[in-house]
Fold:
Amino acid sequence: MPQFSLATNFDTKILSEIDKLNKKYPESKVFEVYGSLPLSLTGSGRSTIGLPAVSTTDLAKHIETAHKFSLKFNYLMNSSRVSDLDDLTFRKQLDMFLNDLIKIQVDSITLADEKLIRYVRRKFPTLPIHVSLITGVDTVAEAKKYSNLGVSLTTLNQHTINRDLKTIATIVQDVNCDIMLYANISCLQNCPLRDAHYKWLSSQSNESTTDDNQRVDKFILQCERQYIENPIEFLRSPFIRPEALKLYEAVGVKHFKLSDRRESTEALVKTAEAYMSGAFHGNLFSFLFRDDRKWSNAVRNIVEVKSLGNTAININNDKLTAFNFDELVTLLTGEDLEKFYVDMTTAAVSGVDDQKTKSFHNKLQSVL
Structure:
């Protein structure tokens, strides 16, 4: 049975809506929601741009309500930039923060920094740890290393491994923790800026490093340009469609992450339902890139997003189903895979050259 870790926007309604979905789809389950304070001692894997402005009190109330609906809460401390653990003052602050999380009954925490994982495992041995996708685990050796540290779950590197079923299967067999994959990703395959982007995001949610002058996510703008200039990247992007879950279940993966913490309750529930039902009919671009918000979020602090307009990009998801997209992108290799991507882009992707798309692109890029 597929189980989902869903982002929360801290709207109480989302918890009751998840409960309805869990009752509607008994063959799948949202088992937890995840989130964090917008700014914190360690930071998380998102900048504060667009994150809900919640307090510690709000966090505690949300966790309490989640538990009433039999949902676990995973707190994100998955910054890739953590202060020096040799600093006694920082360690005292960290211990206080973790004790506060335990007091409000956080069920688990997600960490990305290996030293921090080792520290928390030693100092708080009963607190379940999830290894963040930011850590970049994509080999059997790396997965076993964290499994041997006693973590309860590891999310693999979505940029490199999501379509490598053989390696995923081997990892699942060789570790003693759960394995999770990030499903509704809208990032470039093997993105060369991955680590630099996560470092920037981490710095923008850390109390000691956030910078009000860095209000634009320039990494996303560079990403958007790559997609527009080379539309084949839309299908190379290592997303896992709702229809593809059965392939991953067959190799032992039961847990899937669904984002994004900046989205509305309606959008998050729509995403969860598509994956829980195992089907989505419509524009996969709008579904994954969230009606262009994936890109416009990068400038929302300095630009009226509505002034950008919208793209006309469409990825016909039913056509991908008809051409056995998931089976083939996880089976084909080399030139055969590249030819398939080219053919499928021609068949299923449209609107990249539309005037609406060009206008959106030019306005967005003018911010750089």
Summary: The chain has one domain: 3-279.
